[in-house]
Write a structure and sequence with these properties.
Radius of gyration: 23 Å
Largest sheet: 9 strands, mixed
Strand content: 15-25%
Shape: globular
Structural class: alpha+beta
Keywords: ATP-binding, Kinase, Lipid biosynthesis, Lipid metabolism, Nucleotide-binding, Steroid biosynthesis, Steroid metabolism, Transferase
InterPro entries: Erg8, GHMP_kinase_C_sf, GHMP_kinase_N_dom, Phosphomevalonate_kinase, Ribosomal_Su5_D2-typ_SF, Ribsml_uS5_D2-typ_fold_subgr
Bound molecules: adenosine-5'-diphosphate, the ligand C[C@@](O)(CCOP(=O)(O)OP(=O)(O)O)CC(=O)O
GO biological process, one term: farnesyl diphosphate biosynthetic process, mevalonate pathway
Number of helices: 16
Pathway: Isoprenoid biosynthesis; isopentenyl diphosphate biosynthesis via mevalonate pathway; isopentenyl diphosphate from (R)-mevalonate: step 2/3
Organism: Gigaspora margarita
């Protein structure tokens, strides 16, 4: 049977939280190895779409599609149980697709119905409950023993998310899978225009479903993988977001076209060789919209002070990003020298890397770059704490500061911080060599002040991609084939 499978990565915003809401500033977003999968196969019911989310206790949604004047309408049999992200994507993607392919081809596939699975890697959802129920400790060994895409034993509403951006990864993989299934794109992995089309549609659907136009870095990561991000002007989507119940399809089709005047900027990025990112979720969670509200209100009320702070953070972050890029160049220039320098630094605490600069030895530029990343990122953290204090949004609250400082003490750690909006959601830690990973995980496992749960994910710089079901471990077992 023909199956369409598309996956999209989760995201970690390393630098640029709050700043990237403004087009003046850039952020560094990293794609994760944890991916969200959409699988589509023909249905066996007339114009019925069945969505399966087999990881949850409330696993199915059913819709009937009708097309009226080129607009797709969805009716559901259970009015009280909706999934806004899925409905928004289905309704608008299908309307856009019907406008771009022959009506005969479109009608044939719609009439057959669609059977759709949406499935996220385990890291998107907290696995604490499963581990607790099986009396397993909260560590990476236990997580590796879980079945891939395991059941979370709760409903979608109640599940504890880990902050990797499940809605953006799901939206993007579902949009891309629909476009592939209807053959509205034919080389989506490699064709930049087709990828841009998927970006524009996903960005629109995600904004519409979440009821606001955010910076869009999460959808951008799901589309392009790791990159330095400058947001699009919110005015681009305004004409189709404002009139939510009465979207003009002609205007929408113009806006999502890959040649439309989108002004977002993407500069692709990968962590330098020998670098590794690890993540942990913290057992409390934060409300991003309310933190954003507080920070933006403070910035509005204190524009001068805020601008100084914003520009300081931006210049420190720019040094971090440029140095990371330069490290990759250093590797290309002389791999042996690079590996040797990394090996030396991986055994020493970051604050001591400056001592290596005084010694007569090769690899000085690499020591310099590493030390500069270490110190500049410490400055970013200080500014985020200032932002916390002044805006009263707990971006890097003292509890997180203590944990991050303990991580930063570990030899080989280059930067440890709160991703995205910060708060009590998660932490990231980037280091060099292999040894820091076990040592940081030990810090987490023995941390008493709060419960810190590691994730298995690491950096993967690739955006969404068409997949072969057989190549994704454990995915086939989730489907009723
Ligand atoms: N496995 C899934 N199946 C169906 N819908 C999902 C799934 N994972 C996430 N979603 C959708 O994404 C929404 C969560 O979005 P949000 O609260 O913004 O979290 P996040 O920060 O992870 O994006 C859910 O309400 C649901 O609509
Ligand atoms: C504050 C922000 O700049 C970054 C928020 O990043 P998070 O990664 O914390 O996002 P959520 O997954 O939605 O919680 C807001 C934005 O850019 O939209």
């Amino acid at each position: 049977m023909s199956l369409t499978v598309v996956s999209a990565p989760g995201k970690v915003l390393l630098t640029g939280g709050y700043l990237i809401l403004d087009r003046e500033y850039k952020g560094l977003v990293i794609g994760t190895s944890s991916r969200f999968y959409t699988i589509i196969q023909p249905g066996d019911n007339l114009s019925k779409i069945i969505i399966h989310a087999p990881q949850f206790n409330d696993p199915n949604w059913e819709y009937k599609i009708t097309i009226k004047d080129g607009l797709c309408e969805l009716s559901t049999f259970e009015k009280d149980r909706c999934n806004t992200f899925i409905e928004t994507v289905l309704k608008h993607s299908l309307s856009i697709i019907s406008n771009r392919i022959s009506s005969q081809k479109f009608d044939e596939l719609v009439l057959e119905g669609l059977n759709i699975y949406v499935i996220g890697s385990n890291d998107f959802y907290s696995q604490r409950e499963q581990l607790k129920n099986s009396n397993l400790p909260l560590n990476t060994t236990s997580l590796r023993n879980l079945t891939p895409f395991c059941k979370v034993h709760t409903t979608l509403k109640q599940v504890h998310k880990t902050g990797l951006g499940s809605s953006a990864a799901m939206t993007t993989s579902l949009v891309a899978a629909l476009f592939v299934y209807f053959k509205c794109v034919d080389n989506v992995n490699d064709d930049i225009k087709e990828r841009t089309l998927i970006h524009n549609v996903s960005q629109f659907c995600h904004c519409l479903a979440q009821g606001k136009v955010g910076s869009g870095f999460d959808v951008s990561a799901a589309v392009w993988g790791s990159h330095v991000y400058k947001r699009f002007s919110p005015t681009i989507l305004e004409p189709v977001i404002k009139s939510e119940n009465n979207i003009d399809l002609t205007v929408l089709n113009k806006i999502i076209d890959p040649d439309y005047k989108w002004d977002n900027q993407i500069k692709s990025f990968t962590l330098p060789p020998e670098f590794k990112m690890i993540l942990a979720e913290v057992d409390s969670g934060s409300n991003t919209p309310s933190m954003v509200g507080k920070v933006l209100a403070w910035r509005k009320a204190n524009p001068e002070q805020a601008n100084i702070l914003w520009n300081t953070i931006a210049s420190n972050c720019a040094i971090v990003i440029n140095n990371l890029i330069e490290l990759t160049n250093e590797y290309e220039k002389d791999k042996t020298e690079y590996i040797e320098a990394i090996r030396t630094c991986s055994c020493v605490n970051g604050s001591m890397w400056s001592n290596l600069l005084d010694q007569e030895r090769s690899g000085k530029r690499i020591f310099e770059l590493l030390y500069s990343i270490f110190t500049e990122y410490q400055k970013v953290r200080q500014s985020l704490r200032d932002m916390s204090n002044m805006s009263d949004a707990p971006i890097e609250p003292p509890m997180q500061t203590r944990l991050l400082d303990a991580c930063t003490e570990v030899p080989g750690v280059v930067m440890a911080g709160v991703p995205g909006a910060g708060g009590y959601d998660a932490i990231f830690c980037i280091g060099i060599g292999d040894k820091f990973v076990t040592q940081v995980e030990n810090v987490w496992e023995n941390w008493n002040e709060m419960s810190v749960g590691p994730l298995l994910t690491n950096e993967s710089s690739e955006g969404f991609r068409k997949e072969n079901l057989e190549n994704v471990l454990g995915l086939k077992n989730c489907l009723e084939l």
